[in-house]
Amino acid sequence: MASLFSSGFFVRQPAWHRQGNVLEDAPTTEVAYEASGLNWQVNKQPLFFKNGDPQVDMATDMFGLVRNTDNRVLGYCKEQYEIFQNIDALNWCDPLVSSELWHYETAGALKNGEVCWVLLKQGERELVRSDILKEYLLLLWSHDGSRAVQTMPTTIRVVCNNTLQMALDSATFRNRIRHTISMKPKLEEIRSIYSETREAFNKQDEMFNRMLDFTMSEGQVVEYVDSIMTGAYNRGNIDEMEEGRSKTIAKNVRETLLSAAYNGTGAQELGINGTMYGVFNGIEEAIEHYIGGNRVKDRGMNILFGSGHDAVNVAYTNAVRMMAA
Hints:
By secondary structure, the chain is of the alpha+beta class. It has ten helices and ten strands.
């Protein structure tokens, strides 16, 4: 995601691309606003075009979303579009942080400010010895007119930096900010958010513990990988495909998934090799970090919103189905 990074801060530990401000301690909202580089606003400006006459401006029904600090056009919208300012996001987070149930972990902007985020740390837990899952509440919004404001609980598996938000995806969280755009969450709302995220993390733990208890044979691993190839990459039977670039790519993806299923980071050392939990995490690691090569420059966006997100969801859903069969 280095090529997309515009500004941001990270608490104690720099991000993998070594960019942004590193803070020694979790900041206050005021410090977070400045250190993240989000201390700017977006305005709607009407758009015009020249209709063959350089002296005549023709009005349109579109508006440009323009940053006030440098007049950069970040996106386009209709008149009824309601701007969610960066300060709105930080103000929404402030009472959550003040409750001490969450702490700022990172915040910033991607794609020259078109997409912005805040990541609030809620806690962490350990499923097996030394296998830490960090729990977060992620807030995302855009200034390019492409997506609504979203919140979602998500976990990061520290041992391989895997983003495990697929098991926690929830329309409840995705729509929450829209209804509180002009107000700070009250104490009752904060308790509700915490209760819902806690329930989501507990459900994830339950499923991952089931995965830990499910030992897979070599044949089941192959079957599982092939189900992901069919569901996520539309590649049912690679052997029956005509020779060509598409078949070569499909073969490489399948080999990468199979290798990761057996050799995911830390699987052997943690004693989870051969379990559904180890295989699933290896598959997720491959999708997030390896598949696509250097052409995938926006891996962070891909795993949250793109084909990577869809592929991980297929992997998770198929794992649950296989255990239930």
